[in-house]
Amino acid sequence: MPDFSIGVDLGGTNLRIAAVSREGKFLERIDLEAKAVRGPDHVINDMCAAVLRLTEKHRGDGQFLGAGMGIPGLVDIESGTVRKSANLPGWSNYPVRAEIEKRLGVPVFIDNDGKCAALGEKWMGAGRGVATMGMLTLGTGIGGAIVLGDEIFRGTNEMAGEFGHVPIERDGLPCGCGGYGCSEKYASASALIRVAHEAIASGRAPALAQAASANPELKAKVVYDLAMQGDEVSRNIFHKFGKDLGFLLAGLLNSLDLDMYVIGGGVVSAWDAFAPSMFAEIRARALIYVTKPKTQEGNVADGGAQDVSVVTKALLGSDAGLYGAARAPLMSEKKMGEKP
Ligand SMILES: [Zn+2]
User: Fold this and answer.
1) How far is the CA of 258 from the centre of ligand 1 (A)?
2) Which of 111, 4, 103 is nearest to 58 (CA)?
3) Angle between helices 189-201 and 232-256 (to 10 degrees)
């Protein structure tokens, strides 16, 4: 058995833990209920007990190098605390890293969950082998990150990669950040659902209305299925969604000039429905020619597009955050071992 680290992905309801080898192989994975409402002490006790069970099991054959944890919210990576999290009540200013280190006795790293997902895709997913990568995760909002080499580029105020708050409509919808017309009001998964509900309310979307009455919790998958069956309204919703996402990406391509832009989040399973209008918008606006990679994996090294920036979908799904979290202790070990 090889040396390994532990990756933890903490959500509002789920706590997922994986032992990952230095080479990026999943050795074992545990899924627990997060019980976030019971507070950080409770969650961290459960989590550390599970981590210790895992490490006991794998320690005999390889060294346990450390643990990393992705947290949904604003994370202060220097102090190892959570500054603000909508999904984790009572976690603000709790010394997360110190409490975990005390229980596990190894170096612990904490970071925002979206940043961990980006590191994961860069290490073992779509961005494997490229030098620079941007990641956009389409969910309730749009999470993002810029990865240069093996590191997240954080910016002066740790706001680099907040692609969800790039304005794409001058007089657009108000956003939770205080601005107007932010991209996540148009190109996130929740924006897609909002537009579908608006179409239903307008009375001009009979197929969607029928689907929504059968299942009031309207999901992107339902809109996608209708679009694939040829429903004009659903097709248009994805068409506009793709255009807005492409508009955002064209701006990123022109300003950042990274090797690859990876799109993640559950809504990428509807890629066929929005990618054509997304690529059309990018081609019309980006200075650098962009293409889909020819290989399904999207690896530049696999003989796909070699001289252009690539826009492609994420490959690791919800495991990306676990890979990225597990990566941090391995990277830090490498850095400490470097000759000055
Ligand atoms: Zn905003």
Assistant:
1) 23
2) 4
3) 150
